[in-house]
Amino acid sequence: MSIFLYNPDKKDKTAFLDEFVVRTRIFDHLFWEISTDKMIVPEQHYMIVGQRGAGKTSMLLRLKYAVEDDQVLSKRVIPVMFGDEQYSIGELGNLWERIAAYLEENHGFEGIMGEIEPHIHERDYEEATFNILIKYLDQRKQDRIMLLIDNIGRLFDKFEINEIRRLRQVLQTWPHIRLVAASPVIVHYIVDYDQPLHEFFKIIRLNSLTDEEAMTLIRKLASIHHEEKKIEQILTTSPERVTTLNTLSDGIPRAIVLLFREFLDNEHGDVLSDLERVLDAVTPLYKHTMDKLPPQQQKIIDAMALHWEPMEVKDLTKTVRLESKVISAQLRQLEKSQLVLRSRTKTKNHLYQLEERFFNIWYVMRYGKSIHRDKVIWLMKFLVAWVDKEGLAESVREDVKEEKRGKLNDGTFKIYELTYSFFERIKIETGPLVEENGSAYFSSGMKVNDQDLLNAFEKEAEKGNLRKAIKTIIDVDFEKPENRDRMLKYLLENDSRLLVLADQLNNAPSHKGVRSSYFYRAVAFTLAYFSVKRAVIQHAEKDATRIMSNLLAFIDSNYQEKGISPREQAMLLMLMTFLFSAEYHNAIWKVLLYFDDKKMPLVFNLVRYYLATNMNEEVAASRLSTQLLSVLSPEHMNRFITGIQEMKSILKE
Amino acid sequence: MKNLVGIPARHDNFYQRQREVDLVDRTLMSGNNIQIAAPRRVGKTSLLCYLLDNKISGRHYVYIDTESITEAHEFYKKMLEAIVRSPVISSAVKFAAGLKDKSDRFFNKIKSISILNNALEFNNNLTPRDYHAEFYHFLLAYAVTEETSLVLLIDEFPQTIQNIGSINPAAAVTFLQQNREIRLDPVVSLKVRFVYTGSIGLNQTVAALNATATINDLASLEVKPLTEEEALDLFHLLLSQENRTVDADGDIAFKEMVRWFIPFHIQLVVQEAALISSPGAVITRLEITQAIKGVLSQKHKNHFAHYYSRLKVHFRNGAFLYADEFLKLLASRKRLDKTAAATLATTCGITDFRQIIENLMYDGYIEFDDTSQNYLFNSPILMRWWEDHIC
After folding, report:
1. Directed axis angle between helix B353-362 and helix B317-333, to 10°?
2. How many domains does chain A divide into?
3. Are residues A41 and B124, on separate chains, in Cβ contact within 8 Å?
4. Which fold has domain B304-389?
5. PANTHER family, per this entry (chain B) (predicted)?
6. B366-369 and B374-377 beta bridge pairing
């Protein structure tokens, strides 16, 4: 498989063009602008901005090929692309010289280097070289250059300020050269007002791939490599393998290409195994990045990566045990090396985090303690649980239709009745249960394989033997979030069985076998989910509020250090989606009072972000988005907001 | 018309600002040399390029950007090079004949320009030359032979002064004096005009060298925002480029929310409106509101942050404190009357606050509304940005 992950320019042209399937809208628009310019006067210069692996080099290369392949444009314009070659460029004059050398070697500009040579050690080297270059261009039909430079910040770093002024002057005055540059960050050369290139470029952002774009990329790769059937099977049965990795990698195409490789080798893997293998593949690159850093910078990266969320210098001083001025100086270097991102705040204390989320995740998974790694695994599970927004909307839409036909009432009463009885029952039972259950109970119990027991439960439940099914899970350790989440997923997907199960639990005289209150929690969450959904559709605010109060009281009664599982938190977000869409403020406030950034930081911040956005509190929204973007994609952040909006419109239908 | 960033808008991409063009034209016609002051992104260079591309009033225009020049002799050399390169000068027949002949007292002193195959050529050899004298004689020769006026459009001139002054302040003053002498020379001034622009203020740069007298012959022109009518016209043009139209209420919302019509703000609104709509869409008040929100979002922070950072450069100590507090208060209250401005001065312990307010008005931050007798932000967009990011 000839996928060049780090050097698209080394790839065969046909294969490259074939695989260029994302960012096509950006490319089309950019090329349309370029191809319709006459280049009689200086034209628009561009800066393509996107993190490492986002496809900047590919975009430059795609433009190069497009110009070469365009019958009209190629008669006038010569694309000249510099990637690693720019290491030999130390001053502006070198840039003109390198262009001249390229033209002599590839486009028959014979004699140009010979003419430049006498000026190399002269004072007017830059100016003379440029003039010679222009003179040679003016002698030809192909008299315009499209200069494509990757990682332009590194070049600017080497130039004196006056050389940058001169570059601006050239680009603004001479129509011969159009610059399309790329950079992983918006460099200060174009941001600061006192810089000559302040706002000089049109910025083209290569944002993170959306899940849909990631899927398209994988499908296209499958088609190129004749693996459509295998890949389609994976995408149909386990779309979360793509969406989760896409979020964890912050939507970089390079990670998706690696994931595609993983799919070929390991069709039946899961999100965790995919992540591990993709991290293995990027290890040489990231390890090299770490190894070449001086020790103080390595310490800072270590502290920031393990902390993961944005940090202030004062927090770093405690962790790294270096003076704040030393840390600040090192941070400036790390910022320049594009490893650290500084987010300005209103105070002097800026926030710092690693520039690349995937690098952060790689570091945590390779060098973090289990407590750090668990954070990544938790996030991964949460993302998997939170994937199905469309399913949620669709099920509400169906229920709304049923409601209009007057067919929802009977079922609703049954659900309410079961839910209220269930909460009444567990109110009495949970007190002693909490004391009796927990790790002590399970550790003293017999050793059993939880997964086998859960399989047996599902098998019996399928057959309709609920009583027998319940007996099979007597010894399952539901204190383990993964067991609870599996049960939660099962109940959510099998609502009819849930109702029978709840009925059994409510009516049976005793359930001494199923004593784990954590098992009850899975039932409580699913009952609350179905009840609140009905309440919202049928405008029963009181019921929604009461059920939420019951659920929260129950969670609180058996909340222990194990906390709330990823799927439970995803369920809470779905419940909040219902409450916000119906504007049940009482219920919302009850949940908010319960919410806590320590119990559920991600969910808590997402809800606060929605509130801040909704109330036009842009400063708070911006602060929260900085925090959230360190772990989520903008697509995920908006998923909650758009989910509410969509739900609102369904309820109004 | 394309939505351009950074580069001067020329030909079809230039939104013609007839008032400014006429003003420059009239000022030149009345024999003045000009300095045009405005912050970056207002459209100074585009205006110069319009004069150049359209040969307004039949004059010969030559444009030169002098931003990277650090020495006086280099400035004169670059000026000569730019003039020789210019097609309008190459076609000046009498001038070319004079150069060929070299019998004239001015022409025979010009060593750096010669005639090669009936075309002017700059002799780029390395022999040291007095380019100041060459340039001066060149202009004299032009003035005595050519009937068409020559206008030298010199961009980023204040930066050149700053470059020279940072090495040797006395050299910068001498440079300014030389330029003034050339401009006011009775022969040169018959046919040659100078138009200077720059994104850093010429007045402030020269004042820092205590050399204000060296530029007091220049007429100072301002590039003003577009009128409401022009702004709407540009807005529609840019939208049509994106294959969008706007309804009547959308136009009203645009006028209300943008109010200070500099092309760049209009470009940003169009850019954001295009992002949140599909091709063929009709833009309404809702999209305009959302587009303005987009303009104010974090991703466009760099477009506005310089307004705040410039305050720190312009004002020092107490003056900065007052300017900062004044703008914060204005952003949160939307308007301030003169009493509130005076009260704030007392709180900040400032006496010369009127000067600070005048500077804020001159630099394009605020205006004084005669009807309500209140200070307002020039731009509601900037006001909202201030409220969100600075307050």
Report:
1. 70
2. 2
3. no
4. Arc Repressor Mutant, subunit A (1.10.10)
5. ATPASE DOMAIN-CONTAINING PROTEIN, DNA-BINDING PROTEIN-RELATED
6. antiparallel
Q: Which residue has the tokens 């929604």?
A: A544
DSSP tag of A48:
E
Contacts of A44 in chain B (CB under 8 A): 2, 4-7
Residue of A133, A189, A199 to mutate, testing the B interface (most B Cβ within 10 Å of its Cβ): A199
Is residue A376 a part of any domain in this protein?
A: no
Residues 589-618 of A with CB under 8 A from B: 618
Q: From B41, which residue of chain A is nearest by alpha-carbon distance?
A: A199
How is residue B224 written in tokens?
């003003």
* Other CB atoms within 10 Å distance of the CB of residue B121: 14
pTM: 0.73
d(CA A304, CA A354): 7
Interchain CB distance below 8 Å, A619 and B6: no
Q: Which of A41, A124, A169 sits opposite B68 (nearest CB)?
A: A169
Residue in chain A closest to B63 (alpha carbons) equals: A173
Q: What is the pLDDT of residue A437?
A: 41
Spatial separation of the C-alpha atoms in residues A450 and A485, rounded to whole Å: 13
Q: What is the DSSP string of A434-479?
A: HHH-SHHHHHHS----HHHHHHHHHHHHHHT-HHHHHHHTTT--TT
CATH class label, B228-295: mainly alpha
CA angle B63, B65, B66 (to 5 degrees): 130
| Mean pLDDT (whole number) for A425-436 | 51
Contacts (Cβ under 8 Å, ≥6 apart) of A17: A62, A65
- Classify A564 as helix, strand or coil: coil
pLDDT beneath 70, residues of chain B: 39-40, 116-119, 124-128, 314
Examine the fold and report which residue of A145, A178, A205 is the final residue of a domain before the chain moves on.
Answer: A205
Which of A162, A179, A205 lies at the terminal end of a domain, its last residue? Answer: A205
Q: Exposure string (b/e) for A251-275, b if CB count within 10 Å is 16 or more?
A: bbbbbbbbbbbbbbeeeebebeebb
Range of the structural domain that residue A525 is part of: 386-652
Half-sphere exposure of B274 toward its Cβ, with a 13 Å CA cutoff? 17
Query: Any CB–CB contact under 8 A between A622 and chain B?
Result: yes
Nearest by CB to residue B70, choosing from A43, A162, A190, is: A162
Give B-chain residues touching A162 at CB under 8 angstroms: 68, 70, 163
Q: Quick check: A440 pLDDT over 70?
A: no
Which residue ranges make up each domain of chain B? Answer: 11-222, 228-295, 304-389
Mean pLDDT of the region A336-348: 75
- pLDDT tens figures, B9-68: 888 888 878 888 999 999 999 999 999 977 667 788 889 999 999 999 999 999 999 988
A365 located within any domain: no
Same fold, B228-295 and B304-389: no
Is A344 within the bounds of a domain?
no
Classify residue A338: in a domain, yes or no.
no
Q: B126 and A122 in contact by Cβ < 8 A?
A: yes
pLDDT per residue as tens digits for the range B262-317: 888 998 899 899 888 888 999 999 999 989 988 888 777 778 887 887 787 767 77
Q: Indicate the average pLDDT of chain A.
A: 84
